[in-house]
Amino acid sequence: MNRPSFSKILVETCRLLLGAVFLFSGATKAVDPQGGAIKIADYLVAFGLDSFKELSLFFAFNLSAVEFALGVTLLLGVYRRYAAWLTLLMMCFMTPLTLYLALFDPVSDCGCFGEALLLTNWQTFFKNIVLLAAACCLWRYNQCLVRGFSRQAYWFVPLWSYLFICGFAYHNYMHLPILDFRPYKIGVNIQAERTIPEDAPQDEYRYSFIYEKEGVRKEFGLEDAPAGDSVWTFVESRTELVKQGYVPPIHDFVIHTMEGEEVTDQLLDDPRPLFLLIAPHLAEADDEHIDEINNAYDYCLEHDMLFYCVTASTEEEIAEWEDRTGAEYPYLRADDTLLKTMIRSNPGLILLRQGTILMKWHSNDIPAEEQWPEKIASYLDENRDPKAQEEGRLITNLLTFTVPLSLIWLYDLLRHRIRRKKRQRTNGKETE
């Protein structure tokens, strides 16, 4: 039995590494396509391509689908040469791009893995250096890769992978992400997540002072600054952050009344159920399901529950929204970035009680009027396990993707064996 060569082991390792990274990258982007579109829009603005912002969602869908399909193709060893070429081209493009991001920092986070894994720009660049080296090795020795399918079944793998992840991303866009990697997931207590522990590391700063004597300026530290020396004249002071201290997972949750009074703690400490209609910009909000939203507000009035619309819109946009929808609920104000982070829907509905997020609805999923009593009772149930529901949805989607792929693989394997047996019988007869 021949032992695999070093090049064989190396190329298979590179194939597994690249396949896993691309698959994970595509899947995490598809979980939150709206977040991906926001990140791509940031890129376009940073590079002066504002005119293409309208296509950011299209780019987000296709980028996640291409990465996912490429990852599956690499892992299963189909279209080995083309997959190796495409991988190398993508890494040759992404590596210089991430170097530019690391040097000039136009975008703080590359968004390579959506919200699932946040990397600094320098971490992303070093990651891409490793992947580029792996891609070069894969391109050089691509014919050494083990095939998982026969050539006749090659076409199904990338096509099914692309179509599945597009459908998966579309579902997450039209509803809410099946997995929530942001701080405001169901089950989180906002008050607890914004609290800084007493023993948490604090920010460390370096202070320096510029003094001048006889036209010459000199920098001093805090200990040796000539503060009482009349010979030196103070010019300016500088403060530099040396080490970042503890930053709570939620650090930007601040809500004000329309008059500017902060009511954050008041809302989070109130024992009554609280509904927040999140609408970053009402001028862009979808009003297709306004009847369901108004019914939810009426239900809250009847059952002593709180209901507010939280927005970053102007008073003119609020007035226009009220004229268009007949809305009568009160309004609060918050930063639009915070609101976009809280829920991927404009508008979206969040149910809280004493700061704990109990449920989130996309505008397409807000319950009908007759469903509210049953729904509210179930969501206020302290024994409810939202994580189990999340895991159930995840398993369902995983099976939806893998079962057809497995069936095609079994069919391909059986067909290959039948053909091989036929050839053996034919060769046996010819020998006779």
Helical fraction: 40-55%
pLDDT below 50 for ≥5 consecutive residues: which ranges? none
Tell me the span between the first and last alpha carbons. Answer: 31 Å
Order of helices and strands: HHHHHHHEEEEHEHEHEHEEHH
Helices, by number, come to: 13
With strands numbered from the N-terminus, the spatial order across the biggest sheet is: 4-7-6-5-8-9
Shape: flat
The averaged pLDDT comes out at 89
Instruction: Give the tally of β-strands.
Output: 9
What structural category characterises the helix and strand content? alpha+beta
How many domains is the backbone divided into? 4
Main sheet attributes: strand count, strand direction, barrel closure: 6 strands, mixed
Question: Roughly how many Å is the radius of gyration?
Answer: 28 Å
Structure notes:
The chain is of the alpha+beta class. The protein has 4 domains: 6-174, no CATH class; 204-243, no CATH class; 256-384, Glutaredoxin; 386-432. The protein has helices at residues 6-31, 33-46, 56-76, 80-104, 121-140, 156-174, 190-193, 264-269, 290-302, 315-325, 336-342, 372-379, 386-431; strands at residues 204-213, 216-221, 233-243, 256-257, 274-279, 306-311, 331-333, 348-353, 356-362. It is flat, with a radius of gyration of 28 Å. It starts with 5 loop residues before the first helix and ends with a helix.
